[in-house]
Amino acid sequence: DSDLSMRTLSTPSPALIFPPNSPGFQNGRGSSTSSSSVTGETVAMVHSPPPTRLTHPLIRLASKHQKEQANIDRLPPTNQLCRCARVCRRWYNLAWDPRLWRTIRLTGETINVDRALKVLTRRLCQDTPNVCLMLETVIVSGCRRLTDRGLYTIAQCCPELRRLEVSGCYNISNEAVFDVVSLCPNLEHLDVSGCSKVTCISLTREASIKLSPLHGKQISIRYLDMTDCFVLEDEGLHTIAAHCTQLTHLYLRRCVRITDEGLRYLMIYCTSIKELSVSDCRFVSDFGMREIAKLESRLRYLSIAHCGRITDVGIRYIAKYCSKLRYLNARGCEGITDHGVEYLAKNCTKLKSLDIGKCPLVSDTGLEFLALNCFNLKRLSLKSCESITGQGLQIVAANCFDLQMLNVQDCDVSVDALRFVKRHCKRCIIEHTNPAFF
Fold first, then answer.
1. What's the pLDDT at 392?
2. Cα–Cα nearest to 352, from 327, 334, 329
3. Number of domains in the chain
4. Disulfide: which of 41, 121, 193, 433 matches 157 by Cβ 3.0-4.6 Å?
């Protein structure tokens, strides 16, 4: 009984991070941890601090000066810190210094991540009861067993959290996300991509009541990735925009229910957006581009790939008002022609990356406008552009010397044209489907 009571107060086993058949638990290594496999699940025990013993004579602890010079980015990851804590009592105390735990990173589909987070945060809260004041980043992407319980643990224990990534954790819901953004006021980076139950980002009702009518500005999120949150609708986007007014990076890839109306809400509240993706949002049209154009010179990155309702009209809105655009992905927007490329090239002369693949109405004429205006172009994708020939490529290569990537797969271009590009753009990597060109 006494042994069991000691275990509940101590070090998380590395088995919380890795199942028994992982490399760290093969060939007898890691045998000091208590773990067992039951019906394919890892059952991790929590151990007491190891007894004090002499460290290995070849192991030297860093001096105070060396510690001050250490690069925080080189700290061991979560699983290695847990293993270090098993070496001896001194290493145990060093490994659990809260200053080493600015980041928790857990990976794996089978890991019991809810339990792992509970044990880790409980240990890190011992010096500052109930809160982990040093923890700023939690990354549990791909941990499919994460549930609302795990997010509640983070919300309750990590008030200084700045970055949370739960990509692919499809069991979490709006309520748990609301708790995190309400109890972690410094949260700036949130990745809930692939979390299909998440349809909104908002403060909890209790938190909203305590704040002023402008409580939406209390959410400090700047980076929000909701890729593949395919249940998100315009009303949800309206709520997100009203609460997250400081957004600078927003990714809505494959949020297929979003329409131009949702983008109108977004532009009312979020006027600082620099990067925006609405790729594969098939209901977004030229009217949506008119709304996005209200970002004007602040917009640097835009992805509208496979938005089939966007034509030259929408491109003209962007080109006219967003003159500092650096990246545009318009792949699969089959309504774009040489006229749209002309508007873009003449107004967005600082363009560095352009993808107009699968735009069959873009020809060598459009490439000529690019070549004569966008000298800083570094990446150009023309994949499956049926109207492109070697002549257009040669014009681009003769003017855009800094070109680093060119995709002409499934284009009817000659070997001579590809060799011309290679001669003029020395650093260019050419992706092609011409077997005669090496």
1. 96
2. 327
3. 1
4. 121
